[in-house]
Amino acid sequence: MTESANLVPFIIPEAHTAHIRRKLFDLPYASVSPAQKLDIYWPAEGDGPFPVIVSIHGGAFMGGDKRDVQITPMLEALERGYAVVGVNYRMSGEAKFPVLVHDVKAAIRWVRANAAAYMFDPGRIAVWGGAAGGYQALMAGVSVGVPELDDLSLGNPEQPSDVQAVVAWFPPTNFLLMDAQLAESGLIPGDVEDHSAADSPESLLLGRKTTTVPDLVRAANPETYIRPGAPPMLIQHGLLDDTVPYQQSATFVATARAILGDDHVTLDLIPGARHGDPAFGAPENVAKVLDFLDSVLNS
After folding, report:
1. CA 134 to CA 61: how far, in whole Å?
2. Is 49 helix (H, G, I), strand (E, B) or coil?
3. I need a surface site. Which of 110, 129, 260, 288 has the fewest CB within 10 A?
4. How far apart are CA 142 and CA 135, in angstroms?
5. Which CATH entry fits the domain spanning 3-297: 3.40.30.10, 3.40.50.150, 3.30.360.10, 3.40.50.1820?
6. In the chain, what are the domain boundaries?
């Protein structure tokens, strides 16, 4: 694990990558924090330029790592000719919103600035993540041109941070509604998963109890920034998710479709699936995601 793992209250197993011959680990994309590093994986053959999937780990905004098993589904894209870039970012124990968004966007700018050196296609970049990583993927997709969600001092300010496709698995969006939505589905959270508590992952991310800062919650909600020109999005969520209610995705998609059109945003609700369910990483579902990315980036 990299330095960011020292900040987390739980450890997720590391992904098996020994079979991947072409890879580089722990390249810094900025210099403010030891967390600002990325890993690169390339297809076994070819010299590109390869379309890029930026993999963003989850972990309740306080844990996870770019090299843990959450990247395993994304690495299947190597067989379809994608490069995969795993990104770490500052956790809530180190910095508060919107710093985590700043970090991912700085990583995207780094990818573009170094495209020639690392065989990337700077015009074909997708983001893909689950849970907090899904939140990050949505924010990367909708926040182009929003100054408060960018920090150009992190590097490569001449490069754009837009992406061409978004895949978000079970992302939180509107922190104030999470508990009510869980109750609505009969999945009332226990004390540990009380999203309105002062020590909830969402409150820790914002640095304040969510119910006391509705304006900050709105600023942290990806729905706030949806506007024409956002990239195509695929959002998948389990109907039995008792950590992040599926209504978080459903509400985001309804808003996005009203602005972008029905064909621009795909919502895939998975019956029987819980938070981080194996169904998401199953071969048939990963193939569905990769088909979506192919249709957007390789058409």
Report:
1. 11
2. coil
3. 288
4. 11
5. 3.40.50.1820
6. 3-297
C-alpha span between 276 and 238 (Å, rounded): 8
Q: Residues 71, 56: contact at Cβ < 8 Å?
A: no
pLDDT of 194 reads 83
CB 75 within 8 A of CB 43: no
Cβ contacts of 170 within 8 Å, gap of 6 or more = 130, 131, 134, 236, 237, 238, 241, 243, 244, 246, 249, 275, 276, 280
User: Positive or negative, the Cα torsion across 199, 59, 6, 125?
Assistant: negative
User: Torsions phi, psi of 95, nearest 5?
Assistant: -155, 155
Beta strands per DSSP E along 29-119: 37-41, 50-56, 83-87
Amino acid at 165: A
| Cβ neighbours, 10 Å, residue 184 | 12
pTM above 0.85, yes or no: yes
Q: Residue 22, Cβ neighbours under 10 Å: how many?
A: 14
Q: If you ran DSSP here, which 8-state letter would residue 271 be given?
A: T
Spatial contact of 232 and 165, defined as CB atoms under 8 Å apart: yes
Kindly tell me the burial class for residue 10, based on how many C-beta atoms sit within 10 Å of its own C-beta (0-12, 13-18, 19 or more): exposed
**pLDDT mean by block of 10 residues, the chain; 299 residues:** 38 91 98 98 97 98 96 98 98 97 98 98 98 98 96 98 98 96 80 77 97 97 97 98 96 97 97 96 98 94
